[in-house]
C-alpha cells in the first residue's frame, strides 16, 4: 500500500484534498506535526469531510517520531521537492513506496533533502514558477506510482464500461 507523508502541512484545504486522493486510491496518509490545522473528529465533521473514514491516517509528534516508527521508510522512500536534481519519471516506485512532501511555505527540511539527495524528485515546471499546489503535486506523484504498478486494487473503468452504445459517425457504425 502506498504511503503519503506530509511533513508539517499548513493548509487544511490541501490536507483535505490529499485525504480525498488517499481515500480514492487506498493510500495511507501520514501527518507529521506540527500541523497548521485541527484533525480532531469534531473538526473533520465540521469541515464536511465525509470520506475521512475511508482514509487510514497516522499522526506523529515530529519527523523523528515518524522515523522511529518507520525506520525503513527511506529504503523505498521518495522526497518531492522543487530543489531535486531529477524529475519524478526517473523514480521506480513500488506498490509500498513512501512519498514525502513538505509544508507549503518551505518544503521539506534541508537536512532531510541532503541526507537523501539521491531520493529527491520533482515535477517539471517552467522556470520562474515556484511550485505546484501541494495537493496537486501529491495527486500527480501518487497516480504515477500507482500507474507504474498497474493501479493495484483500483478499477480502471466506470459505469459507462457496461454500456456499449452504437456510435455512428456519418452513418457508419464504429
The fraction of residues assigned to DSSP E strands is 15-25%
Q: Secondary-structure element sequence?
A: EHEHEHEEHEHEE
Distance between the termini: 40 Å
Helical segment count: 5
Poorly predicted residue ranges? none
Question: Which helices and strands occur, and which strands form pairs?
Answer:
Layout: E1 3-7, H1 12-25, E2 28-32, H2 41-46, E3 57-60, H3 63-69, E4 77-80, E5 98-101, H4 110-115, E6 120-121, H5 134-148, E7 168-169, E8 172-173
Parallel strand pairs: 1-2, 1-5, 2-3, 4-5, 4-6
Antiparallel strand pairs: 7-8
Helix pairs in contact: 1-5
Textual characterization of the structure:
Helix 1 links the parallel strand 1 (3-7) and strand 2. Helix content is 28%, strand content 16%. The protein is α/β, with parallel strands linked by helices and 174 residues long. It has a six-stranded parallel β-sheet with strand order 3-2-1-5-4-6. It has a two-stranded antiparallel ribbon with strand order 7-8. The chain is built from five helices and eight strands.
Amino acid at each position: 500500500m502506498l504511503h503519503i507523508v506530509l511533513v508539517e502541512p499548513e493548509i487544511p484545504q490541501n490536507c483535505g484534498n490529499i485525504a480525498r486522493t488517499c481515500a480514492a486510491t487506498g493510500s495511507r496518509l501520514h501527518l507529521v506535526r506540527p500541523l497548521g490545522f485541527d484533525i480532531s473528529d469534531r473538526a473533520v465533521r465540521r469541515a464536511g469531510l465525509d470520506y475521512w473514514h475511508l482514509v487510514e491516517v497516522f499522526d506523529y509528534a515530529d519527523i523523528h517520531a515518524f522515523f522511529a516508527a518507520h525506520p525503513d521508510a527511506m529504503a523505498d522512500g521518495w522526497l518531492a521537492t522543487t530543489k531535486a536534481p531529477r524529475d519524478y519519471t526517473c523514480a521506480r516506485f513500488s506498490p509500498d513506496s513512501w512519498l514525502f512532501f513538505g509544508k507549503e511555505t518551505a518544503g521539506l527540511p534541508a537536512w532531510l533533502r541532503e541526507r537523501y539527495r539521491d531520493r529527491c524528485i520533482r515535477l517539471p515546471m517552467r522556470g520562474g514558477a515556484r511550485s505546484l499546489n501541494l495537493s496537486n503535486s501529491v495527486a500527480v506523484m501518487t497516480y504515477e506510482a500507482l500507474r507504474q504498478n498497474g493501479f493495484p486494487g483500483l478499477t480502471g473503468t466506470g459505469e459507462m464500461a457496461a454500456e456499449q452504445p452504437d456510435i455512428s459517425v456519418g452513418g457508419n457504425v464504429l
